Amino acid sequence: xxxxxxxxxxxxxxxxxxxxxxxxxxxxxxxxxxxxxxxxxxxxxxxxxxxxxxxxxxxxxxxxxxxxxxxxxxxxxxxxxxxxxxxxxxxxxxxxxxxxxxxxxxxxxxxxxxxxxxxxxxxxxxxxxxxxxxxxxxxxxxxxxxxxxxxxxxxxxxxxxxxxxxxxxxxxxxxxxxxxxxxxxxxxxxxxxxxxxxxxxxxxxxxxxxxxxxxxxxxxxxxxxxxxxxxxxxxxxxxxxxxxxxxxxxxxxxxxxxxxxxxxxxxxxxxxxxxxxxxxxxxxxxxxxxxxxxx
Length: 295
Hints:
Layout: H1 2-6, H2 30-76, H3 90-101, E1 105-106, H4 107-115, H5 124-136, E2 140-143, E3 152-155, H6 157-162, H7 174-193, E4 198-201, H8 202-206, E5 224-228, E6 231-237, H9 244-257, E7 260-265, H10 267-278, E8 286-290
Parallel strand pairs: 6-7, 7-8
Antiparallel strand pairs: 1-3, 2-3, 4-5, 5-6
C-alpha cells in the first residue's frame, strides 16, 4: 500500500482487488481510497459547477438574443390598416354589377359568370365561398326560394351602392324567379356570342336613367336593350301566353320603337307569338327564337 501512495495517484478506472472490502465507485478501498475519492469528487464538482455556469450563461444569452429578435420582429410588423377587411376584386365588382342589373342571379348561373371568359362553370364549393365572402362584406343576400332549385343571390343596399347602382333594394319573389332566370340566360347567351354588345336591363330602363330610350307614349318596358354595331335590339322573354289583344298591342308598340325585336319563348308559347306577329304591321322587325337555345 505504501508504495502505491508514494507513486502517481491512480485514476478511478484503476481497480485493486482487496478481498475484505468490495471495490467502491472510485475503484479503490480503504483510507487512501476515501481521501482520493473526496478530492476527485471536489474536483468534479468544481468542473461541473464551471460547466453549469457556462451553460447557464449561454442559456441567458440565448434567451436575451431571442428576446431582442422578437422585439425587432414586433417592431418591424406594423398593424395592417386593412386587417380583417374583405377583399373585393375587379372581377367581383363586374359580376356584382351584373347581379344588380338583373335583379338576381341563380347560383348555377353565378358559377358560369365566375368562370368567364373560360367555358364551363366554377365548382359549387368555390362558388359558395365567393358568395360567403360577399355576404360577409354585406354586399349580397341569398336564399333558396324554391325547394328543389339552387339559391338565388341579389344585392343589398350596400352592394348596390358599392357598384354604383342607384336602384331601390329588392328581394326576389317566387312569381318573379322564372322570368329573371331566363332573362339572365338570354343575356349570357348574347354576351358570349356578341362580346362587343352592350346590355341595358329592364331594371335599368325602368329606373329613368338618361340612357333610357322608351318613348313617352309607351306603357310597356322591354326586358332589355342590346346595343350591337348594327343598332339597338329589343329583347322580350315570354314565358306565358297573354291574351291575343294584349300580345298584339305590345308587339305593335315594341316593333314601332325598335328596328329589331328578339322574342325568346318556350315551345308552348312560340306558336302563339308567330300567329300574333303575322298580324302586326311591322312584323319584319320581329324575330322569334326558341327559349331552349339559351338553356
